[in-house]
Design brief:
The chain is an all-alpha fold. It has a single domain, classed as Orthogonal Bundle (Tetracycline Repressor, domain 2), CATH 1.10.357. 74% of the residues lie in helices and 0% in strands. It contains seven helices and no strands. The protein starts with 5 loop residues before the first helix and ends with a helix.
Length: 158
């Protein structure tokens, strides 16, 4: 098997920063695709949203959580001083927020969302919750902290 050296990688991708940004793009694309399938599938939208949030809470509170999510890690560690990275993080979050909002609008239309709830505001709250769970999960030894926060947020869907 041939070894790929630095010169070869940089010849293909440019510099280290460009490689990082391309990897971030690919990660977001691969991570967001299953969310799209999950949240646009026919059926009860609130149950899909609940499943997503509970899965994220479980992952944040699990072994190996210190690795976290590449998009979240970029938001926390890189985006403040790299506009291109920040734009990619925002694009990922915007896409997830749009999927959540669409699912919640569908739930509202089908009478499955509590009356008076704002689907856009709920979607925004959920994306902030998801990112917060990933950050807290990186250092918190008690998975109940993340799980309890998720359940409180999900009670807003009732």
């Amino acid at each position: 098997m041939a070894r790929t050296g630095r010169a070869s990688i940089y010849a293909t991708f440019g510099n280290k920063r460009e490689l990082y940004l391309r990897a971030l793009d690919r990660y977001a694309e691969m991570k967001d695709l299953p969310l799209h399938e999950e949240l646009t599938r026919p059926g009860a939208a609130p149950s899909a949203v609940r499943a997503l949030i509970r899965r994220d809470a479980a992952e944040a509170g699990s072994e190996g959580r210190a690795d976290g999510c590449f998009v979240t890690n970029t938001a926390v560690e890189v985006a403040a001083h790299d506009r291109d990275a920040a734009r990619r993080v925002e694009a990922s979050w915007d896409g997830i927020e749009a999927l959540l909002c669409s699912a919640l609008v569908r739930a509202e239309t089908q009478g499955e969302l509590a009356e008076g709830r704002d689907p856009r505001a709920l979607a925004r709250m959920l994306i902030v919750l998801m990112q917060g769970m990933r950050v807290v999960g990186k250092v918190c030894a008690d998975p109940a902290r993340v799980r309890d926060a998720a359940e409180q947020a999900l009670s807003l869907l009732d």
